[in-house]
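re: ur msg from earlier - yeah i can do the manganese (II) ion complex, just paste it... oh wait u already did. ok heres what im feeding in:
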Amino acid sequence: MKLQYLGHSAFILEKENFKAIFDPFLSGNPNSAIKPNEIKGLTHIFITHGHGDHIGDAIELARENQALIISNAEIVDYFSEHGLKTHGMSIGGRFKFDFGTVKMTPALHGSAIPTSKGPRNGGNPGGFVVEIDGKKIYHAGDTGLTMDMQLLEEESIDVALLPIGGNYTMDIHDAVRAVSFIKPKVTVPMHYDTFPVIVADPKEFEEKNIWSETKILNIGETMEL
Ligand code: NI
Ligand code: MN
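and the outut:
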């Protein structure tokens, strides 16, 4: 299984015929190394919450690839109105898909969807625990530190994708505390450096994180898991 970082909170997770993207903020991201039309064969799109830097290019990607969008019920309603294939979930819910199992986790954040008619209710923000062939990936979405993260320890997470940029999410200090709760094997920092208010040094996170291995991915870089 391969995990590729596309900058901000965007990742591609790929195994054989399964190819999913998380929070595909590509064309709007000044640091993005890839354009949406360069991504082919996408089967699934995970959206953690309604903000523009997470919905990103989801509509174009879903349309071009006939990909299934997995998100909360309110965000899925919005995409369904665009004629896209969707699967709605809610926080705490787990569902067995053909590729593996997905559980939605809570996030402490907002979720309004920006539209041409103004903000639209995007339900509760969340994250995902995705299990494929016995490997578990946790994408936290945008969140502050929560005690709920202690519940993730028993999930035995292999790779945790955690925001470290501060201002809108956990900063490095709180992200390290999150790792101490979750105890994943590997942590990949995300949601930093995209905007001036979320500049953070992932090497500082790596130094302070004594709770798991840290894997800093450059934009465009892929890791095996
Ligand atoms: Ni957000
Ligand atoms: Mn964000």
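cool cool. The two ends are 5 Å apart (CA to CA). ping me if u need the other ligands too
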